[in-house]
Amino acid sequence: MIDVFSRDRETDNAPLFSRRSFLAKTSCFGAFYAVAKLIPLPALAAELALDSRVSQTPLVDKGFASVRKIGNGLYATISDGSKGLQTICNGGFLVGKDSALLIEGFTQPAGASFQMDALRMVSQVPVKAALDTHYHFDHSMGNSFYGANGVQLWAHAAAAKRIVDNYVPLQGADKEAVLGPAEKRIKDAKSDTERAHAQSDLNALTGLFAVANASVLGLPNHPLDPAKLPLSVDLGGMTAVLESYPGHSGTDMVVRVPEQNVVYAGDLLFSGWYPVCFDEKATVSGWRETLKKFAELDKDTLFVPGHGQICGQEGIAALREVFDDIAGQAEKMYKAGVPVEEAQHRYTVPDKFKNFPIYAWGFTIGPAITKLYSEWKAGKS
Ligand SMILES: [Zn+2]
Fold it and tell me: Is the pTM of this model over 0.85?
């Protein structure tokens, strides 16, 4: 990805921020605005060290991601974006007696390939399919690995079209035309806060532009009609249940293994992160309902989130609290008549969430507030 701090060399303009002033500005908001590259992965929680399902030693660790056994025939691939961008999101695989199911296409084919290699370390059963939990680039730009290897690629029925609609226009596009509006927002910012938020958005867009242009798009070839879900998939002595829930992207699927209380949640769960809410099909009320359902699952449920570390129900509780906090602050502003353009920048990160990464303001907190405002205006909640 592009280092935004060296922009001055390309344009002869003064740098937008020196690295030091950028860090000083952002740290005073109690959070850092960074792309995946700058977000380190926390260690496995102490409670999970006592969970007999979870192996304390990874099967394999490549830095950018490691694979860990989390159940009988169940593995989680956990990414550490600070060490490489091959995967960025988490995934995993399920191994039955007859076949295996891989989860996620990741950000690069090398990420999908890494996970396939990890599967082959433990089993030689045929791969029934790989599943993209949703269409977003960090879960799908490595899909071409599956195409090249003849692996069926499953996803929500809307996912293939969303990949085409959102990422094809970036391929071969003029970079200035794509990034110009975000750069203009930095120039036009009315305050340091707005400027820092706009900068975080530019960082994220710059990364997306780079990934989209470096990738051969691979489209899911096996659409899963949400009206026909849940779908039980028999892998031989193990049943995976595929379900769809609203919230993050309009294409979200989860893989549940009821017999072992394990859920691969995709991006419906950001563990110890602020949730990414920018998608036009993301819905805050829908997402909060989904999290309520996850909270009603068994108290020993183990979750593999789309981003962040493996967690139990405490991870669901924390994300619900984050949504409560955003909604609480937004509601006060809504009732006080603060315009939405202003409100989306005025949220303050409370101390308890100060270590929760914010992928980019305009992809997380900003749109969460905008969506809450529209839901209230429409009288939905
Ligand atoms: Zn996503």
Answer: yes
